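Ticket #4471: structure export looks truncated?
Reporter: QA, pipeline team
Priority: medium

Steps to reproduce: submit the single chain below to the structure queue and open the exported record.
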Amino acid sequence: MKAGVKQIIAGVVVFGIGAICVPFVIVLTLVRDSVDLLEFEVPGAAIAFVDTPGRYYLWHDYQTVYDGRTYHSPIELPDGLMIEITQQGGMPLDFVSDPHSRFSTIGRARQSIGYVELSKAGQVTIDVTGGAESRIFSFSPFSFGRFVGLIVKGFLLAGLAAISSLGLIIWGIVKLANAPRKSAKVRS
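Actual output as written to the record:
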């Protein structure tokens, strides 16, 4: 194998890793995070077991699949919907209305309804009453900073892979260009 070809191949491989694996890891992380959410049908109640304190959002999953059924609800919530979130022992939590976040992936679209701040881990009961039409709500931790941080880290890793691959390819081309050439033997 000619001098420099190995570096060019290594550069192409590093570029492939950066172009394919880094976005794949970001998507897998986002999918894994969506597994942490508790889905339930409303009107109704659900019990969540919270491992870590923090801000937890209540979402309206207006486009989703739940228990084998497809839901396409209007994004607006019906009038008369009552939401009560309580900690273990029945202590009510302050529910802050915050309908400004939307999140969508393939086959799922949801909008935030609001959030509660949990100061300790434990059991949380979400009780939703009112509204005639069945809908799907979900309850999950959400950190916009973590989401943005994941995207920024992904771009930085992809950029580092691109720069590394470009360096390897240039190094391989320089080695290839500076390699001694075999001269043709002259017959006498």
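Status: closed, not a bug. The export was complete when the record was re-opened. Leaving a note from the reviewer for reference: The chain has two domains: 5-26+148-178, 37-142.
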